[in-house]
Amino acid sequence: MTKFDVLREIRELKNHLSYSKNIGFFFGAGTSCALGIPDIAALTRDVESALDKNSAKIFQTVKDDLSTLIEGRAVNIEDILNQLRRIRELTNES
């Protein structure tokens, strides 16, 4: 069984990266949560709780409307923003 040498692996990675022009990273869906960034459900709650009374009423109206269209999961801030963009587009921004 070979022993894993961390320093050798880091040097090898550094060597590979030093010759690369384009570097890409793939992160899993839970990466942002591990870094303390809220997930979509928490972000939706945070936005909703920060709204003034009038904006909260509009938010809830759109959320309720979307909940009749979206099945199998909770409506989130992305759904709400997309719906508001569609409404604005259909009403010529009014």
In short:
The protein is mainly α and 94 residues long. The chain is built from five helices and no strands.
Provide an overview of this structure.
Helix 4 (53-67) crosses helix 5. 3% of the residues are buried. This protein is elongated. The chain has helices spanning 6-18, 31-34, 40-50, 53-67, 77-90. 61% of the residues lie in helices and 0% in strands. The model has no long low-confidence stretch (mean pLDDT 89). With 94 residues, the protein is mostly helical. It has five helices and no strands.
Sketch the topology as an H/E string, one letter per element.
HHHHH
Strand content: under 5%
Number of helices: 5
Given as residue ranges, the uncertain stretches (5+ residues, pLDDT < 50) are none
